[in-house]
Design a protein that fits this description.
Elements (H helix, E strand, L loop, with lengths): L17 H8 L5 E4 L2 E2 L10 H15 L4 H4 E3 L6 E3 L8 H17 L8 H12 L14 H13 L4 E4 L22 E5 L3 E12 L6 E5 L14 E5 L5 E5 L3 H4 L9 H4 L3 E12 L3 E3 L3 H9 L3 H30 L6 H26 L2 E2 L5 E2 L2 H26 L10 H5 L1 H10 L7 H15 L2 H12 L4 H11 L3 H11 L2 E2 L2 E2 L1
Parallel strand pairs: 1-10, 5-8
Antiparallel strand pairs: 1-2, 3-4, 6-7, 7-11, 8-9, 9-12, 10-11, 13-14, 15-16
Bound molecules: flavin-adenine dinucleotide (FAD).
Length: 502
């Protein structure tokens, strides 16, 4: 008998701390695979150990009584304090409070984990604030399921990730046109209790570390794709769910000193296979409905809230980048050169633009008919478009500032621990105010952000996490307020004719 979420004894009501989060994952029977083997326990496996601790640290922060005001609000259902990532904002002030809580978490990972529990929580906040969309099919109203599950996630302080894009097999064909037709995850059967899902989704970031997984489609669907037009949730340890992790950068890191970011913040990304997975009806929010499957992203605040979180996180990461750029020019004695300051100015302008667009998302917030306040979409999509271009540029600029210094580094911490080698490091790899060990430490940190495999994955992430650039730009096109522009064009055209100025 498959467990339903309400009686999953791994979890209990109330705020979780890190230990409770880890205990919920420990030996929970999930099927995670890496390097040709099934992982017995993600909480102790070297590929996931440190990332699990980084997420646990977030739960320690939010459950710490000293952070109660910053990180929590009262659940309308239980009256208990719950994580602010689940707050449905009713005012600009609420939106600002949510931002502060998300920012606090982002600072704990330096913005280097994209799918921390607040990311998909944002999508659920948007869905919970747009329930009418899930009732649009009057024969299959599902808003109650959505709301119940949202309340469960919030009141049990759970971690949910998502897979909303199918694998790249043949993009020239619709989902149902793949060979075989159940290649992409979708419904293959239904019974009295629920539905059976079969097929795969491309990438679930942090799915190996989360409690639940949401399966839906954000990719435009075509007539005939109805089996894929779903939104369902499943426990990550449900029978038939197989999580195939990409290569682990954490496990490959020789030490925390050598790879300070890869070793601690590698959230991992996985192909997720659903092998005839049973989903109870109460975990089904959209069922074989092309319109609702599309509208859930755009007619609710889901996409806006989820991506607003991503922008808060990004701004923290950019501040880290700026700090590193400043530190390296100080260390190398080039800080006062005008052209170096110009380059730092270029970098700062991007960081400031994205920060400004984040402020603008709150300043231009809008409220829906239920009084729910969501971030301004024009500023949001402008920042997503800008980020796909700004982030690679910023990495390039910091590389330019670092020169060969990020390459001329001891092979590993072991060199520094060997007194014979260390003497040369201390003498030749140093700067006026930095010992050899300090200089190497800073440069290795920068390398892990700009040049390591972890860094390369981050560059890909910032370009694609919100969709490919051509999709993000077409969303910007839809959200831009052309009305005033068109008025100005008409006004300009009406000021003159063939005879001259009117
Ligand atoms: C690091 C990382 C983490 C991710 N994590 C998650 C996650 O947690 N959950 C999740 O669901 N997804 C995740 N994704 C997947 C992400 O959502 C997709 O990568 C993104 O939506 C783009 O889809 P795609 O990769 O299939 O690219 P495609 O849609 O295949 O596009 C690739 C390129 O092909 C070209 N192209 C394709 N179609 C067209 C077209 N119609 N018109 C013009 N050009 C076209 C463009 O150049 C485009 O950039 C992640 C991706 C990355 C890189």
């Amino acid at each position: 008998m498959v467990k339903r979420y309400a009686d999953d004894e791994r979890f209990s009501l109330g705020l979780r701390d890190g230990e409770k989060y880890i205990n919920g994952l420990k030996n929970d029977g999930r099927s995670v695979f890496i390097d040709g083997e099934k992982v017995d326990d993600v909480t102790v496996h070297p590929a996931f150990y440190q990332a699990v601790r980084s997420i646990a640290n977030l739960y320690d922060i939010s459950s710490n009584p000293a952070n109660r005001e910053l990180m929590t609000f009262k659940s309308p259902n239980t009256d208990l304090p719950v994580n602010k990532i689940w707050m449905v904002p009713k005012s600009k002030e609420d939106l600002e409070e949510r931002r502060a809580a998300i920012e606090c978490w982002a600072e704990a990972t330096f913005g280097l984990m994209g799918r921390t529990p607040d990311h998909v929580a944002g999508f659920f906040v948007g869905w919970a604030a747009g329930l009418d969309v899930f009732d649009r099919n009057i024969n299959m109203r599902r808003s109650k399921n959505l709301l119940n599950f949202f309340n469960y996630l919030r009141d049990y302080d759970l971690f949910i990730t998502y897979t909303i894009v199918p694998p790249q097999v043949d993009r020239s064909k619709p989902m149902h046109g793949q060979n075989p037709s159940d290649l992409y995850a979708g419904v293959i059967d239904e019974c009295d209790d629920g539905v059976i899902i079969h097929g795969a989704q491309m990438l679930g970031t942090a799915t190996a570390l989360s409690d639940y997984l949401c399966l839906s489609q954000i990719t435009p669907l075509k007539k005939g794709d109805e089996n894929h037009a779903v939104n369902v949730v499943v426990a990550c340890n449900a029978p038939g769910v197989r999580i195939y992790s990409r290569r682990s950068y954490a496990a490959a890191a020789s030490s925390v000193y050598d790879y300070p970011l890869s070793s601690r913040f590698d959230e991992t990304d996985s192909l997720v296979v659903f092998d005839k997975v049973f989903i109870p009806w109460e975990q089904v929010f959209v069922y074989k409905d092309l319109e609702i499957c599309r509208d859930q992203w755009w007619d609710t605040g889901a996409h806006a809230f989820g991506n607003h979180q991503a922008q808060i996180r990004l701004c923290v990461k950019l501040k880290l980048l700026m700090g590193l750029a400043k530190r390296v020019v100080q260390m190398n004695g080039i800080e006062n050169i005008p052209s170096v300051q110009t380059l730092l100015g270029d970098m700062a302008s991007y960081a400031a633009m994205l920060e400004g667009l984040l402020d603008a998302q709150i300043a231009t917030c809008t409220s829906n008919s239920d009084g729910v306040v969501e971030p301004g979409r024009q500023a949001l999509y402008a920042s997503i478009v800008l980020q796909t271009e700004a982030y690679p540029k910023m990495l390039d600029w910091i590389r330019e500032l670092c020169g060969g210094g990020i390459i001329q580094l001891p092979s590993s911490a072991q060199d520094l621990l060997n007194p014979n080698i260390r003497a040369d490091i201390d003498r030749y790899i140093q700067s006026p105010d930095y010992s050899g060990e300090e200089r190497v430490k800073l440069m290795k940190l920068i390398w892990d952000l700009v040049g390591s495999e972890f860094a390369g994955r981050h560059e890909q992430y910032e370009k694609f996490y919100a969709g490919p650039p051509f999709v993000v730009k077409s969303r910007m096109y839809k959200e831009y307020d052309f009305e005033k522009s068109e008025y100005l064009v008409d006004s300009a055209l009406s000021g003159y004719n063939l005879k001259g100025r009117l």
